[in-house]
What does this fold into?
Amino acid sequence: MNAVLVAVIAWNTFREAVRDRVLYNLVFFALLMISAAILVGQISIGIERLIIVNLGLSAISVFGAVMAVFLGVGLVHKEIERRTLYTMLSKPVRRTEFIAGKYFGLAITLAVNTLLMTVGLVTALLYVDGTLRREDAAVMTGVFFIFLQLLLLTGIALAFSCFATPVVSTLGTLGLYLAGIFSDDIRTFGSLSENPAMQRLTTFLYYVLPNFGQFNVISAVGHGQSVPGALIAGNTAYTLLYVTVTLIAAAAIFSNRNMK
Amino acid sequence: MPVIATEKLTKDYLTGFWTKHPKRSLDSLDLEVHENEVFGFLGPNGAGKTTTLKLLMNLVFPTSGSATILGRPVSDTSMHREIGFLPEAPYFYDYLTAREALSYYARLFGLKDHAVVDRFLARVGLTEARDTQLRKFSKGMLQRFGLAQAIVHDPRVVFLDEPMSGLDPVGRREVRDLILELKKEGRTIFFSTHILPDAETLCDRVAVLARGRLQGVGSVEEIFHREVHGVEIIFELPGGGAPPADLARTVTRTGSRYRAEVGVEDVYATFARLEELKARVVGCSEVRPTLEEYFMKLVDGANQAKQAGGGSQ
Ligand SMILES: Nc1ncnc2c1ncn2[C@@H]1O[C@H](COP(=O)(O)OP(=O)(O)O)[C@@H](O)[C@H]1O
Ligand SMILES: [Mg+2]
It folds into this structure.
């Protein structure tokens, strides 16, 4: 794997997203959400911070997820559809490097987007509280967890787009996202069941599905609770592992595909 | 060692929505292209030219058979440093300007020099448009840009899929000149076309493909001028009279002149009759099938062969 090639492709993918109006619109809408939060905060005395953290993190999460899914499923498909891939793959670029470049390009885009929205959120917090507090560090952890989820979603969307149409990829990614949110419940359900076959199935699903449930700390950090270091380390390691496996699968599918 | 070699290269595409059945697009292609040749890959639409190029570029994988470029299997991506490719009706990242897009492609080869990019844009006549986004480019301009990206890294072998289609006569002339320049620089050029005159004056050798099968390989002379159809005799008749209907297999009139086309074996008999008619013979020459006619015959032949073979799908 040639890291320079991956970086060159990632940079171009980022550049494409930046020149796409979608990015600006999302930032704009996120800022709108946050100013709405400020308005609500002024009305409900005493819980402004809670509302702003909740609304802000939710907006960052939703806008990020929409971008990850909709740009993610187009990453490869658009290049096939527009036949820009023909010239790309005639360069000394391995298909695995192309997939990696596309992935990191969208990851950079999401990082920048998340960062800009976070700046908006912090500004809003400063506005209602007049100062930043210790608990705000936990809010940053919340943002970090959202970003990790976006990395997972992007990997899944990209893997789907290596063999399916954008519509199927979108549905598949959203389906996995929903199933992943309830992945803890699926295992609990299995352990309650007496049937060993059912238990094996739910255990299998638990390990295969992306476990999005463990990333949701929005209401906890809204209430000023801190996030345990073990969870941060665990979620980070989980994301790295899951994304790596997803990308290897995506690259394997893509490498064996006929580019008609 | 041949620069490009294919051995029994075969590609079936799966077609049909519900029930997929294979459709043979390329059938056991054996081909060798030598160093520094301009090699024309000819065939009517649907012959399998693009399929062959996609197989060579490792975009699609052969059903059976194999291919090498510069002695290395086509699946070896590192060999791509030495080759350039212009796809059919090419399309590029349209949110980039010509300059940005070409530097992007150059960077994939580790080239960071902007002067190189500008030089190649100049070479294909895009200097004035270099800061224009590719989405505003005409088909001909995209074709030129496509040529630039195919040669910016100084490749030894250049593959061009229908490089002249979509161009006006001036553009065609320029592409022709560029191909000859590339040859002079010692490169090997493999290009496909369904427009025969493009190939005639340019190629050292050509291969003709019809319905996925190779029909012949050789110099343009060998391939297209092998057989003489007949002889045409141009003549005028005294007093503006009309020639007898059975004079020749076809007689056409243009102004005061007639053109009779006869079989080679009937030439002397026809001359004798013309003498009787006191005709003034103005010219006499061989009739060769035009390249189009040659193609049509090949396609018909391939069709008949297919029917005779029991219409194997
Ligand atoms: N992706 C594909 N799926 C199914 N059939 C295809 C595909 N691409 C090409 N073909 C078929 O293969 C044959 C050869 O096509 P092609 O190589 O594009 O011909 P050419 O470039 O000589 O015009 C045609 O009959 C075409 O319909
Ligand atoms: Mg073609």
User: Anything to note?
Assistant: Chain B has nine helices and 14 strands. The mean pLDDT of chain B is 89.
